[in-house]
Amino acid sequence: MPLEIILSTSVVGAVGLCFGIILSIAAKKFKVETDPRVDKILEVLPNANCGACGAPGCEGFAKGVVEGKYPCHGCIPGGQDVAEKVSKILGVKAETSVKQIAVLMCGGTRQLSPDIADYDGVNTCRSAHLILGGSKACVYGCIGFGDCVEACPFDAIHIGKQGLPQIDGQKCTGCGNCVQACPKNILKLYPVDTPLILACSNPEKLKEVKAVCKVGCIACSLCVKKAPPQALKMENNLPRLQPDAPKDIKLYEEAVNSCPSKCLKLGVD
Questions:
Q1: 8 Å CB contact between 47 and 32
Q2: 105 and 177 in one domain?
Q3: Tag placement on the chain: N or C end, fewer CB within 10 Å?
Q4: 8 Å CB contact between 108 and 213
Q5: Contacts of residue 241, Cβ cutoff 8 Å, sequence gap at least 6
Q6: Are residues 183 and 200 located together in one domain of the fold?
Q7: d(CA 58, CA 37)
Q8: Of the residues 166, 192, 218, the one at which a domain ends
């Protein structure tokens, strides 16, 4: 082997060794110590990386909660159980939170609120919504292509036989991904102890509502009269449950039974 090759190989090897030593020393000198609590918190998180907490993934939440950027109960899918574990790791008192689940504010199936046009585009709700709000008779109703299904990381939503999303209350964690995915804004998060739900989002008056849906709210106000005093109020032609309304479902049975459109239901699940 020529001497030049031996020398060049030796020089390259020596330079590589020197750089390796320098990098090793630099890595140790400039090493950023990680708070051990971050790893402990990561161990108790569901690691769904859904982003419901506002952080870019579970690791971001773990770091943020240690730094005080996020509350201990900020992990929505983890619920109260994870909140208590995180609080214990940080040595603080756990705050009590009520689980929320997604609810569809529409009951207009294909039979009850049919299409008035043929849509021949990309089969996503967002795409269909861009074309005059979709092909459905009611422009406020669910399009039914399942953007919410694709957005759910917990397999809690499926499109039913009637063309509307069916939400599994046991699987739903209240992460809110489906709420953000819905272009109609008719998926909402409600606490599981909510006693009454309105399955309609159409704010129009009786004639306009009846023309596009058989189960739309006609703003008759009967439910307001039959519900506990001050529990319901008409807002924009729709009955709204007030924040201080009683939680006992039985108190709303008469209101639900009085609804001529049958668009009110007891409880969220």
A1: no
A2: yes
A3: N
A4: yes
A5: 194, 195, 196, 231, 232
A6: no
A7: 14
A8: 192
Q: Which residues contact 215 (CB under 8 A, 6 or more apart)?
A: 107, 108, 112, 113, 199, 200, 261, 262, 263
- With tokens 């040595």, the residue in question is 91
Question: Which amino acid makes up residue 124?
Answer: T
**Whether 85 and 116 share a structural domain:** no
Dist CA 138 CA 148 (whole Å): 19
Report whether 199 contacts 256 (CB < 8 A). Answer: no
Q: Which of 135, 167, 192 is the last residue of a domain?
A: 192
User: Which letter does DSSP use for residue 252 in this model?
Assistant: G
Contact yes or no for 101/169 (Cβ under 8 A): yes
Supply the range of the domain harboring residue 104.
99-192
Contact status, residue 182 vs residue 192, Cβ threshold 8 Å: no
Would you say the pTM of this structure is higher than 0.90? no
Number of separate domains in the chain:
3
Tens-of-pLDDT digits for all 269 residues of the chain?
A: 566 666 667 666 666 677 777 777 766 666 566 788 999 999 999 988 888 888 889 999 999 999 999 999 899 888 889 999 999 999 998 888 788 999 999 999 999 999 998 888 999 999 999 988 888 999 999 999 999 999 999 999 999 999 999 999 999 999 999 999 999 999 999 999 999 999 999 999 999 999 999 999 999 999 999 999 999 999 999 999 999 999 999 999 999 999 999 999 999 87
Helices (H), the chain: 3-29, 36-44, 58-66, 79-90, 125-129, 147-151, 177-181, 206-212, 222-226, 253-258
